[in-house]
Amino acid sequence: MNKYSLIVLTSLMLTALLSCSAQKESMYKKSMPLMDTIVSITVVCESKDQAEKAMEQAFAAIDHIGNLINFYSDTSELSAINRNAGISETKVSPETFGIIEEAIYVADTSGGSFDPTIGPIMRLWDFVDKKMPSVTEVRHALPLVNYRDIIMDRKTLTILLRKKGMMLDLGGIAKGYAADIAVLSLIKKGISSGLVSIAGDIRTFGLKPDKSPWTIGIKNPRQTGDRDEIIAKVRLIEKAISTSGDYERYFIAEGKRFHHLIDPKTGFPAATCRSVSVVTDKAVYTDAFSTAIFVLGPEQGMKLAKDLGMDVLIIDSNGTVHSTDGLKGKLSFEKSSS
Amino acid sequence: MQLPDKYRIAILSAYALALHGFEAMLPSPIPWLRLGLANIITLTAMILFGFRAAMMITLIRVILGSLFIGTFLGPSFILSLGGGICGTCAMGAMLSLSRKIFGPVGLSLVGALFHNAAQLFLAYGLFIQRIEAVVFITPVIMLLGTLTGFVNGIVADILIKNLLKKEQDSLHNVAQA
Amino acid sequence: MKKALRNTTIADRILFLFLVIASIAGMFYTREALSQGAEVVIEVSGKPVFTASLYTDREVPVEGLHGHAVVEIKDGKVRMKEARCNNHICMKQGWITRGTIVCLPNSIVVIAGSGMKKDLDAITG
Lengths: 338, 177, 125
Hints:
The structure holds 3 protein chains of 3 kinds. By secondary structure, chain A is of the alpha+beta class. Chain A has 9 helices and 16 strands. In chain A, a hairpin with a 2-residue loop joins β1 (26-34) and β2. Chain A is globular and about 90 Å long. Chain B is built from 6 helices and no strands. Chain C has 3 helices and 8 strands. Chain C has helices spanning 2-6, 10-31, 89-92; strands at 39-44, 47-53, 58-64, 67-74, 77-82, 99-103, 108-113, 122-124. Chain C is rod-shaped and about 80 Å long. Chain C starts with a helix and ends with a strand. The model of chain C has no long low-confidence stretch (mean pLDDT 80). Chains in contact: A-C, B-C. Chains A and C meet through α1, β1, β2, β7 and β8 of A and α2 and β8 of C. β8 of chain A pairs parallel with β8 of chain C.
């Protein structure tokens, strides 16, 4: 072999090795406070400019939805619906209508374990100032909780809450819905791969630049420190994931834990699970069904998931893990978890 | 093994130890990263006297070396031992495959590669739990190992040539006498 | 010495070049695998305005949308010491070592901790 071929060989090796590490597509990530929480968007794109523009649009779309269904804002469409409860119907935008429609679907399919009309009950609980309602207060509020009392008119895009005092609270489904909308917005802007996370309601699409799936960490419901924050990792391809847990908003009173996942039928926190993570195609369903399945408990919740063809990871109140077969090969547990 | 061989091994081991000790006095940014000067001896021994001799010299050098310096059975001893054994075995395997493909330089590179790889594995498995740290320093160590391996190979080559020449000269003298 | 260099075989030279190139390429590749130490990042309206180590005690003045706020870092923990907002939910959160404190009216976000482990793209739960 002569010098010439040595040079050629070297150049070929150089090119091969460097082109492996310098990929054309890069990941761009941005976070913003919206919808009362942190929203994070990651996109895979060749051009930084295109990535920024797409993310900006997606954030705007999320913000728009946040404003429409903000429970605490007087100017939101949600507040208008609630103010008109028992009085008149309220005209809403297609997005709001869509969210309520999906909420009713989940309520129906879960036998009422998820119910968007849970507003009057949620009002009675304060997890920051640690206030809980009395049994009497709950008893008075329960009749107002019934998703069947939502009257919708598709043609006029109006919503009517039948009884006075009824209140819609879309907190358990709006973030998932918004994540789906954000993904659609990104795709419209030419992004073929990315991840949108709204406070743990996550929707992924496409693959990362190295063609690997998106890896999502599931929080340990009984985390004791830095090391055991994550209990499991799941790899997603074209799927969404959400988790409902009894550790997100709660307080402890008289040795018992009171958390924000209230059973619409009792008005008190559901007590059979610690955390439920649902994996399926759309984030609107992972968001709402993770709440529904949490309330249903390990057996009935697992059954619901299987009937609907969704994958779920349930950590019940004893710490036992139940998962659907569809997660085999995609789910791995961390060694440092209890 | 014959007496001259044992004699040679002892002398070479002494040289290896001396080089090892000398090198241990040199400052280095990363605790166990060494120039591997003693590997020159190992390599020379392997080419001239075979695998067994080279392995013996390695073991003697590592064990006695750590006894002298005071790190016997400590972390650096384990790393040295693992690296030394792997490196020597790799060189031996390569040599037994074909003496023609690689010269001393190539063998030295192979030895250095396996020596470092073994040390990184051991370091990760036993001492450093954070894989990010190991992943980060691996290319650096590989690069340095390649460069020192190259130089060591050249030096070994020169050493071998000189030793062979001395043998030839002494044989020549004997024949003439 | 030159003679020794000329004495190297083809395989020797190829191996040498390959190893050198591979390790240099490896360095570029692992640049991204660098993990950050525990730090605090303060963002206003989505833009980072301040980054510091979690282990250096200090008080950081931050300009939010409604006015002045103060973020305090002490003993490896961080909190929102003062903020001009209605319900002071951000201040009620107290000291955190990881996670975030959000003052929505001021659009201030304080992120504490060593960021996410590099092998995770997001965390749910």
